[in-house]
Amino acid sequence: MIREGKVLLNIEIPEMVSSDMPVFYNPAMVVNRDISLLIVNAMGGENLVVCDPMGASGVRVMRFLLEVPTVSKAIYNDINQRAVENFKENLRLNQIDQSKVEIHSEDASLLMRHLRNCDYVDVDPYGSPIPFLDSAIFPVKRGGILSVTATDTSVLSGTYPNTCIRRYASKPLLECEFYHEVGIRILIKKVVEEGAKHDYAFRPIFSYSYKHHFKVFFMKEIGAKRTDQIVKNIGYLVYCDRCLYREGLFLENLKRTCPFCGNRLLTAGPLWIGELWDREFLQKVWSLRGSIELSQETVKILKAINEEGYINSVGFYTLSALAEVFKIPNLPPKGRILELFEGKQTHFTPQGFRTSISHEEFLRRVQSVLLRNSRVNTQA
């Protein structure tokens, strides 16, 4: 027996979690499920309908029904019939009213093509979400939320740039310290584009990166004008690996050389250059963190996001990049660095911090404080 949240699971877990498991369950993805429950809880409303088109063990669906009071119906699907039968057994084990669950066993994309009026849809495949995105935009109702998980993080983050260009029609950037954020921004761009084809405006309201997956939650609106406004947030990232300058720009404003040091600029995109979090929604999610039984890792991630989410910046800085690029052998403690740059730690990496100061001001503080102190310490 395995317990996650309020759910008991009768399932076997091998030493190595893989897609070959008879019934797929990944205990490491508890953070993913924790946050999805919090997001739905923060939606408010009554009699919500949630859908998990790749349900596997069904733990997410069962947790929705047992832990989120506003959820009255769940749609479960898995093409693996053995997973479906195991799910039914676990429904009985957890004494969940089966009339609250609609069970399917078919191709996820085909199912989503004819589903409609779901308040929440969770697309969480084993690998890239690309094969499912053109179908996933339909079942979500106006004002509902689509959640998209990607585990092909190495592709999105630049390890395999050709694959990223082929799948997501975007060039990644491995050479910068915030390559995972670049990956999330590429994923957001792709979902926004899929919705825009049908005048659906998918606005990202909450994003995060954890271990080997990215997850983004989108609020759906409908109409050409709303969609046009969302699409305006698609642009390009320019980055200088000599002075750490970075900026989100539109195509007509792209630069080839760094305005601060004259170095040639690296470019990524097209990608999302808008905000990664809706501040009002983020505040609500944070305030409800005690309503769901969360893992310690989830709470840790939420705490960092709750701080960095109020800073609207494309990219972040890291201690290691500071030390390497500006050749500072002995950096001050992280707390002092955060104070100096008015920064907030990012959840992407313990070394990273996000700041709203301009890059010009960032360089001024590097020169006047960090480099000056470094010289003094060296001479001493």
What does this structure look like?
With 380 residues, the protein is an alpha/beta fold. 38% of the residues lie in helices and 22% in strands. The protein has 14 helices and 15 strands. Helix 2 (59-67) links the parallel strand 3 and strand 4 (71-77). The longest helix is centred in the last third of the chain and has 21 residues, at 359-379. The protein is globular.
The major beta sheet can be summarized as: 7 strands, mixed
- Helical content class: 25-40%
Spans where pLDDT lies below 50 across 5 or more residues: none
Question: Could you state the order of secondary-structure elements as H and E?
Answer: EEHEHEHEHEHEHHHEEHEEEHHEHHEEH
Mean pLDDT: 95
First-residue to last-residue Cα separation: 62 Å
Strand order of the largest sheet: 5-4-3-6-7-9-8
Q: Which percent band covers the strand fraction?
A: 15-25%
Strand-pairing-aware structural class? alpha/beta
**Would you report the number of β strands?**
15
